[in-house]
Amino acid sequence: KLFFTDYGNAAKVERCDMDGMNRTWIVDSKIEQPTALALDLINKYVYWLDIYLESVEVVDYEGRKRHTIIKGRQIRHLCGLAVFENYLYTVNSDNLSILRINRYNGTDVQALARLDNAKEVHVYQKRTQTAVRSHACEADPYGMLGGCWHICLLSSSYKARTCRCRTGFVLGSDGRSCK
């Protein structure tokens, strides 16, 4: 799945399949300017930062179990969001510090480091990487991913795929070739 935020005409948190199909609104009320998003892949939670409402909130992948983690004026200066173990990590753009926040109750806020021009934070850890299994976009004997001429996108599951073409090309009637 692909998770993303939008604060155009109607602010929301959404998810869809990797090919853009099955687009679903997860959060579409009491949300104004969601600017950062982080996933708890193990427990299937979505965290987001709303700088207009000055809050960090969480829901499960279906949009249920919503609650506020932390709220207050300090939120308007945060950008980027990552989750790892018991904490959320973010950047305070006001003083360029990396912050750690308890993701269960918003307490234990600590500045960990100060970096010049920091705008985003990512956590890379082996335990957060999902195991790779056989999937529909693997290379075929001719080296084409999923049998697609240009682009292979996973669809509703790792067993399904959708082929797409680069700009200027049209997908052939076989659903794989590009002309």
From TrEMBL:
InterPro entries for this protein: 6-blade_b-propeller_TolB-like, Cueball_EGF_LRP_Nidogen, LDLR_classB_rpt
Q: Which Gene3D superfamilies match?
A: TolB, C-terminal domain
Spans of repeat LDL-receptor class B: 1-43, 44-87
The record's Pfam families line, in alphabetical order, gives: FXa_inhibition, Ldl_recept_b
Query: Known PROSITE patterns for this protein?
Result: LDLRB (PS51120)
Q: Name one GO molecular function term.
A: Wnt receptor activity
One of the GO biological process terms: canonical Wnt signaling pathway
Give the UniProt entry's GO cellular component terms.
plasma membrane
Under what name is this protein listed? LRP1B protein
Give the organism, scientific name. Answer: Grallaria varia (variegated antpitta)
Encoding gene, per UniProt annotation: Lrp1b_1
